[in-house]
Amino acid sequence: MVKYLVGLGVLVVVGAGYILLIPAGDTPAPPALPVAEAPSQATEPAATTPMVPDAAVRQAIEPAPSDEEVLLAEMAADIREGLPMAVTDTLTLNDALFLPRMRIMEYSYVTTASDARATAGELRALINSSAETICLEGRQMFLMGATLRNSFEDRDGNLFQRVYVLPEDCRQFY
To answer: What are phi and psi of 99, to 5 degrees?
Structure first.
């Protein structure tokens, strides 16, 4: 019975020591393989350097923005400068942004019409009929693999429809 209590006490001490000594965000490093050291190295204190992941690991964790992503973000910023813009008498472009992880350039429109869905239907037809113009004007964006997403909201801010223009849709015009 005593040996079980001692064993349980040892487990509690080891668990508490692990929790106190290992920071919450860090994972324990794998044990290092033994390396034969020269006698002069054994007497010098080891330099403590913070563990910095190699470049490949850092790039996987926080990918550096590519030139294309920077260019697309600049395009969205240029469009945002003059917002809001009246597209029709009831439809206003009120936001433009680039979502880098999804490679989506999004334009958000707000309608003040009483029948918001009819307005979005009209604009969807307009987008379909002027697909060639949209693709040619956004050629650089589509060649980089970005998708154009048009989001439509009513005057209460409720999103009720999205229209996508994919890079594959525009290839026929190039």
So the answer is: -105, 100
